[in-house]
Amino acid sequence: MTSDLHEALVEVTDQFVFGIDTTGKLCYSNPAFTKALNLHADETVTIQSLVHSDSLIEFEKLLEAAFEKWRPGRFETSLVIKPNERQLFIEGSLSPSGEGDLVVGIFTDITDRKRAEEVLTRQASHLLLASQSLDQRDQEITDALETAKKYEEEHKRALELGEINQNLEEETRLRSEAEKTLLSSLHEKEVLLKEIHIGPLK
Fold it and tell me: How far from 152 is each of 43, 121, 124, 141, 159, CA to CA, in Å?
């Protein structure tokens, strides 16, 4: 594959291809990278000014490793698109170029994937909260049913006790009436016995 073909592929690819010197100055950026970052041809830019502050320290370590002539593994970071400071998430690698103090970077835009992951994470969080809420509601319903069952059993027991009490009252009434009848009968017999012993009145 010729050098011209390499250059042509770099120019037309959707991946971000760039070269930086030891100061971090952007010596080359392909059209995809220039367009994505809103860069101008005559603009002097350092890669450090493009990397998001949250990722800068880790990125500088990787950059230092690349300048020391060994190739760091693939990594993720985020860049800042000016003037609106929008974040662009990228995945890629840095490599020594073999041409003096120059490092070549190849990045892929993964912003859509990261945004989708954020949406999925939020949805998963909402689903988890909804699930916990349903679990709590199920427990409340279970507790309510157990309480209702307990009250039903207590009501049933109260009805049974009421029926027993009613039966006892009826039995007491019948015994009381029987005692009255018996006492009346005894009284009548006592009167008859007295009459027999005393004799007829003259």
Answer: 83, 46, 41, 16, 10
